[in-house]
Amino acid sequence: MSESAQRHNQPERRRSDRTALRLGATIREANRGRVEARLIDISTHGCRVEAISGASPDAWLWLNIAGLETQYCRVVWHCDEFVGLEFETPLAEAVLDRLLQDNQQLSEAAIRELRDIAVRTHRLATTQADADIQRLAELSNRCAIEAVVGGFRLGEADRAGSGKPTLSDGAAPAAAPLPVRR
Phi, psi (5° rounding) for residue 33? Predict the structure, then answer.
């Protein structure tokens, strides 16, 4: 069985769910300067960032995210500007919950960024070796879903602020007429 086929049959290795979060960050490898990064998503055990970095898999670096202590991380994978990191010491659930609570609703700009990442990672997946295709396809799918969910929540918040009925009010949204095919 090929390496790609084996990987598709393996159970998910992630220890905890990731949550989309668009925050500014910096990463720094030993004996190198800081590099600007953008957090894509995070869990108690790691995160994915977008950064121009030469870090190779299994390299160790420091990740600085506003609101968190600097995290020492291992590079799990790296493909172009996307990097998967594993925290040396997992975040406490309460710390992650607080970070997520403080940044609960994605802004319109963050939603656009997630859509852009979804498109870029999809394109990138079509040009990469088997080892990176699954990671990039999963990242593309996850960012697309988070952009849709974030857009829905933002729309709900806008409607709630304007007094219009929302789905959470129990009101059904007005349905657009379905096109009739003949």
Answer: -80, 170
The answer to whether 56 and 75 have CB atoms below 8 angstroms apart is yes
**C-alpha–C-alpha distance, residues 18 and 16, integer Å:** 7
Task: Give the torsion through C-alpha atoms of 53, 34, 26, 48, to 10 deg.
Answer: 20
Domain co-membership, 31 together with 110: no
Output 85 or 122, whichever has higher pLDDT. 85
83: in domain: yes
Is it the case that residue 125 has pLDDT exceeding 80?
yes
Q: Do 91 and 149 lie in a common domain?
A: no
Q: Which residues pair with 46 in a beta bridge?
A: 86
**What is the pLDDT, as a whole number, of residue 9?**
43
Higher pLDDT, 64 or 177: 64
* pLDDT confidence tier of residue 182, bands split at 50, 70 and 90: very low
Neighbours of 46 (CB within 10 A): 24
Containing domain of residue 109, as a range? 105-161
- What is the pLDDT averaged over residues 126-141? 79
Q: Which DSSP category does 80 fall into?
A: T
| Helix, strand, coil shares, percent, the chain, to 5 | 40, 25, 35
